[in-house]
């Protein structure tokens, strides 16, 4: 078949990002692509991964490479999953379901965001056993409890509570694009819609995306501040987390940890894991990249719980870098989202293929017959263990 979308020629996740940029109106592209303020954190996330050097070892039999990883009792085919992304259907129609199905097919975890544009029930069905649920703690305890009860009823085994949004991130691109609630079609938006007919027609066909889990509650929202108040609370504290620990029967993971002391406290409360994350550089511009924050956290936790990482992963080799520095597992957000933006389900498949093949090749080049075999001794400059 003729590759009209250019997917076969996309050599990297960055190439898919460029393809997505070409066919999505700027306001919708920026919504996903953008970061906080100067976007320093967004840029540094990926740059800092690039700076981690591993030393290849040769004459190791790598004719068979095992990329599987086991976490919370489930073995996945790859050591990464899809991070929770809110309102992703604004980027490309049906993006949520496309990615949930992909994760099932590829046997990797899919994290359904509280703020997804598809209900958590439909996403649980699509991810079919591979779904985890991400919770935002609302200022209204009844809203939070309602979501937890629904997640339980939908059969999610895992809950990931996001800690790193005490206030909404200030994303300058969204301000410049004049994104508003309810969404308004400004003359600039109209020009962008006309210039991107594939996106516009597909979006018209699927209807305006909303934050599906809160659709009724948000009907009356007239500002972004109203939406924020329903979704998250600046009053989320360790007391809340302890209550969530008591409330949720299954494994509980805290997402958005950057300080070793916070990580240790999560372990002491009885959490099963943390995600070292800066929300993909969307919250602050002044924080550390996650791959830099990871080593002291992994050392402080000392194997008491699972240490997961996200933010800035764009290459298969980044997964090895994270493992060498102490991560058990990883999530990607934009890497797979760019795929959907570049070419719907086919684009998502291409993004997955790129990450998988890059990881496989990188493990072979490193001399690691399995992902599990990668460790601190692979870091450049590390002396080999006695
Ligand atoms: C558009 C967008 C929306 C997001 N929405 C959520 C969300 O609803 N809940 C959450 O915990 N994290 C959310 N995140 C953060 C991701 O889960 C993840 O931490 C981040 O995308 C990882 O960085 P990466 O995109 O560089 O891989 C969002 C990220 C993006 C890009």
Automatic annotation (TrEMBL):
UniProt cofactor(s): FMN
Domain of life of the native organism: Bacteria
Keywords of the record: Flavoprotein, FMN, Oxidoreductase
InterPro entries per the UniProt record, alphabetical: Aldolase_TIM, Alpha-hydoxy_acid_DH_FMN, FMN-dep_DH, FMN_HAD, FMN_hydac_DH_AS
Domain FMN hydroxy acid dehydrogenase: 5-384
Family (UniProt): Belongs to the FMN-dependent alpha-hydroxy acid dehydrogenase family.
Protein name (record): Alpha-hydroxy-acid oxidizing protein
Species whose genome carries this gene: Albidovulum sediminicola
Lineage: Bacteria, Pseudomonadati, Pseudomonadota, Alphaproteobacteria, Rhodobacterales
């Amino acid at each position: 078949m003729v590759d009209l979308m250019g997917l076969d020629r996309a050599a990297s996740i960055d190439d898919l990002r460029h393809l997505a940029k070409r066919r999505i109106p700027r306001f919708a592209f920026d919504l996903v692509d953008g970061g906080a303020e100067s976007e320093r954190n967004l840029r540094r996330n990926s740059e800092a991964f690039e700076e981690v050097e591993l030393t290849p070892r040769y004459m190791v039999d790598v004719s068979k490479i095992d990329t599987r990883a086991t976490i919370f009792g489930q073995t996945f085919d790859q050591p990464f999953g899809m991070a929770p992304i809110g309102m992703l259907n604004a980027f490309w129609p049906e993006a949520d379901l496309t990615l949930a199905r992909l994760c099932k097919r590829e046997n990797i975890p899919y994290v359904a965001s509280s703020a997804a544009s598809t209900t958590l029930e439909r996403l649980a069905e699509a991810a079919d056993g591979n779904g985890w649920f991400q919770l935002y703690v609302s200022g209204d305890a009844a809203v939070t409890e309602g979501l937890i009860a629904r997640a339980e009823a939908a059969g999610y085994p895992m809950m990931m509570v996001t800690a790193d949004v005490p206030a909404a991130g200030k994303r300058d691109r969204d301000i410049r694009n004049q994104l508003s609630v309810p969404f308004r079609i400004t003359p600039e938006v109209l020009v962008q819609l006309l210039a991107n007919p594939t996106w516009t027609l597909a979006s018209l066909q699927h209807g305006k995306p909303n934050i599906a889990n809160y659709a009724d509650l948000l009907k009356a929202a007239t500002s972004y501040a109203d939406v924020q108040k329903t979704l998250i609370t600046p009053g989320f504290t360790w007391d809340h987390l302890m209550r969530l620990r008591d409330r949720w029967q299954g494994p509980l993971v805290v997402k958005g940890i950057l300080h070793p002391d916070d990580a240790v406290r999560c372990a002491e409360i009885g959490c099963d894991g943390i995600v070292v994350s800066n929300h993909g550089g969307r919250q602050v511009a002044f924080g550390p990249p996650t791959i830099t924050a990871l080593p002291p956290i992994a050392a402080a936790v000392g194997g008491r719980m699972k240490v997961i990482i996200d933010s800035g992963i764009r290459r298969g080799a980044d997964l090895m870098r994270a493992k060498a520095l102490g991560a058990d597992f990883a999530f990607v957000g934009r890497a797979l989202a760019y795929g959907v933006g570049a070419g719907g389900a086919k684009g998502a498949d291409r993004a997955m293929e790129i990450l998988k093949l890059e990881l496989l090749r990188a493990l072979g080049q490193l001399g690691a017959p399995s992902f599990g075999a990668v460790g601190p001794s692979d870091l450049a400059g590390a002396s080999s263990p006695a």
